[in-house]
Predict the structure of Adenylate kinase.
Amino acid sequence: MRNIVMLGVQGSGKGTQAEMLAEKFSVSTVSTGRLFRSRIEEGTELGREIAPYVERGDLVPKDIVCRVVADWMDAPSARKGFILDGFPRNVAQAEALTEMLAENGRTLSDVVYIRLSDEEAMRRLSGRRVCANRDCETKFHVDLHPSKRDPNRCDRCGSELVHRSDDRSEAISRRLAIYGSETKPLVEYYRERGLLREVDGEQSIAEVFKSIMEKFRE
Ligand code: AMP
């Protein structure tokens, strides 16, 4: 069974690749960031609690994140295999994930790491535009990958494109700093455990996907 974690800096394309892999392996995928943005928009109690963290680009407290992920993984759809995008984000969350899985006799099968330099991540995030439809959230870039039919509308579903508040320079710097100090150590953590499948993120979407599939065949 494929139980996969996607790892990579913001802007590395891991969300896009997670969706492509989910289709390929017929498993479900979740982005914790997207899930949190939905809760914030819906104005739920959880949404109100996490909004200040997400707005600043800070990590949401571990207990909240783990509760949300555990609920998602308990659903029948995730029991046939899953792809996590945006979780775990530090060693404490990685250990919580291992425990969560062990409780149900499950383990992680692979960790896909999409490598990208900080400079390229900054360039990609600062021009990023995201489809406002939470079921879509397709990502565009004003210069590198603009929407073709209308620069302000999503090519896939026609919804409005927005500049995420945490894709503005202050929050981007904060998110990249947190990635460097908290999340990047997970690369070595999972390499040591023999789970890492590393690919170069500075290629086209199709090439990155091809590289990932090659790693799965190795
Ligand atoms: P993302 O869409 O992955 O960039 O996530 C957007 C924001 O959601 C992050 O900047 C955090 O505030 C929050 N978030 C998403 N996933 C996690 C996580 N695993 N742990 C803590 N906070 C998270």
The chain has one domain: 3-116+168-217. The chain has nine helices and eight strands.
